[in-house]
Design a protein that fits this description.
The complex is a heterodimer. Chain A has no helices and 11 strands. In chain A, strands 2, 4, 5, 9, 10 and 11 form a 6-stranded mixed β-sheet that branches. A 5-stranded antiparallel β-sheet of chain A has the order 1-3-8-7-6, with no helix packed on it. Chain B is mainly β. Chain B contains no helices and 11 strands. Classes of the chains: A mainly beta, B mainly beta. The interface between A and B is medium-sized, with 21 and 20 residues.
Chain lengths: 110, 115
């Protein structure tokens, strides 16, 4: 069963706009990770946030974590066409075995 | 640095045939993961190894699937006999320290089509 579920399933925006994706999960976690997958390629790790952290930044990426709501968000600021990809959250459910959601498909129009 | 290398990139075969997927993890990584990705079920963990030993194979769908890791630089996932419902993209990933707290590095996958 899916531990993390991303929302929305699909997102279409214009270049320069911000993109926000959400991840909800069911059980307690140690960490939560976000990955990107370009078409026809493997997943690429973007950022890891620990359960005792609330916010983390990496370049144009901002991740928040609310353990009380069992949710996380990924914000991509000033999006570019090259950001077009699927984005996945991965949670461990406390077991250190990662479970991926179905992903959010992001399209950034030039 | 070379990433995780999977072969073949594409495989098309008829049902009933044996299929062998191969993976070379990143040198120095001691954990290896096999995933299957489909539109219906998303990304599923099939099995993972730590120091060449299978730790959890509860995700392996059935006895037709088997995985081996004879040494630290090579792993195989075998399907015998293959069925059309096995069609999917199979990914191999590796990381360091035997804990998923370390980011996983994925190969580009094998796209498998069973006719």
């Amino acid at each position: 069963s899916q531990q993390g579920e991303e929302d929305p399933q699909a997102l279409s925006i214009q270049e320069g706009e911000n993109a926000t994706m959400n991840c909800s999960y069911k059980t307690s976690i140690n960490n939560l990770q976000w990955y990107r997958q370009n078409s026809g390629r493997g997943l690429v790790h973007l950022i890891l946030i620990r359960s005792n952290e609330r916010e983390k930044h990496s370049g144009r990426l901002r991740v928040t974590l609310d353990t009380s709501k069992k949710s996380s968000s990924l914000l991509i600021t000033a999006s570019r066409a090259a950001d077009t990809a699927s984005y996945f959250c991965a949670t461990d459910g406390g077991s250190y075995i990662p479970t991926f959601g179905r992903g959010t498909s992001l399209i950034v129009h030039p | 640095d070379a990433g995780v290398i999977q072969s073949p990139r594409h495989e098309v075969t008829e049902m009933g045939q044996e299929v062998t997927l191969r993976c070379k993890p990143i040198s120095g990584h001691n954990s290896l993961f096999w995933y299957r990705q489909t539109m219906m079920r998303g990304l599923e963990l099939l099995i993972y190894f730590n120091n060449n030993v299978p730790i959890d194979d509860s995700g392996m769908p059935e006895d037709r699937f088997s995985a081996k890791m004879p040494n630290a630089s090579f792993s195989t996932l075998k399907i015998q006999p293959s069925e059309p419902r096995d069609s999917a993209v199979y990914f191999c990933a590796s990381n360091l320290a035997g804990s998923w707290n370390q980011p996983q590095h994925f190969g580009d996958g094998t796209r498998l089509s069973i006719l």
